[in-house]
Here is the input.
Amino acid sequence: MNLLRFMALLAACVLTSCIDCHEEIWLAADGSGHAQISYTLPAAAAKFQGGEAGVRAMIGKFLADTTAIKTSSYQVSTEKDRLKIDVQASFDSALDLKAVSTDSSMKELPSSASSLAGKFEVASKGRTIDFARTISPGSALPGAGFMPASAFDGHNLVYIIHLPMAAKESNATRTEDDGRTLVWDFPLAQAITSPVSTRFKAEIPIPKSLIVASSFTLLIAFWTGFLVLRKLRKIPRSGDSAGVD
Here is the structure.
């Protein structure tokens, strides 16, 4: 009987923890970008973080303390029995995202939240960016592994990245816009059994501003060299008889 009560309690906790996620990121040619993130979860699950007000305060502090984020805004609202979280954020460099998973602001989040945020690995070689992210929903839903997959039907984790150029490599579920849009769509039932990852490798084109700046630098260097050579030609060489009767 005690085992049955435990299993019933476990089932109630897990079912009230079902989540849906939709994250969309746009990367610009210069490596900067912005993101729109939306999560929905049962309002009952938010009680562990002080309800709607507690979740709002937690998100606000995280965004303010994360150095990689340039600007941000967010909304937290309750509709019937579901809590909805919407976040918009921008960043100057995709390479800065590597620090997010080890940033002090991430360490202050509850383990459930940091597991959903995941760990980032971002590297660059020349103009090529190698991006990887590992998300562990199972760690955010303790006991979920004991539940049948049907308990999570209709709940999905969706991640979308828009690139300025087609990706050279990726493990995306599907691609759109001639390979410039990568989509990962994970059923929650699949994601809780083991960590899921989003990976891609893409070449970022040289921004026009950088081309203009480089051209201007070359022009200045050429003009400076021309003036130096012109001045040197006017300096009399040793042995010249200039000024001698």
About this structure: The radius of gyration is 27 Å. The chain is about 30% helix and 35% strand. The longest helix spans residues 208-234.
